[in-house]
Amino acid sequence: MGISNCKKSLILFQLILQLTIIHSAITPQSSTEFIKSSCSSTTYPRLCFSSLSVHANAIQTSPRLLATAALSVSLSSVKSTTTQILKLSHSHGLSSRDVSALNDCLEELSDSVDSLAASISE
């Protein structure tokens, strides 16, 4: 006795569904392992991993997506630091030397924002 086309289709559908479930269960692990392995050669591997592992689903195992995510995380961090330094530079009681140093820092941070944004768009 042969299996009807309907049953064949149902079996094929179930097989595809199971493979999809298995693949989705495996992918995050391999993604996080890829990120961990990539971060292991950095100066601060734990910081690298903790910053990028939250983006594991987007990164998957793509070096290009990893680089883009790293640049995006860095850009966000630089923007946040810029905001904090800007607030600090408006504090009362700072000497002119302190204000000058903070303004120099803001200029460097601005250059970093520009460079990171340009790198992301490449």
From TrEMBL:
Keywords: Signal. Residues 1-24 form the signal peptide. It comes from the Eukaryota. The keyword Oxidoreductase does not apply. The keyword Signal applies. One of its GO terms (molecular function) is enzyme inhibitor activity. Belongs to the PMEI family. This is 21 kDa protein-like. The gene is LOC103504205. The chain holds residues 1 to 122 of 194 of the full protein.
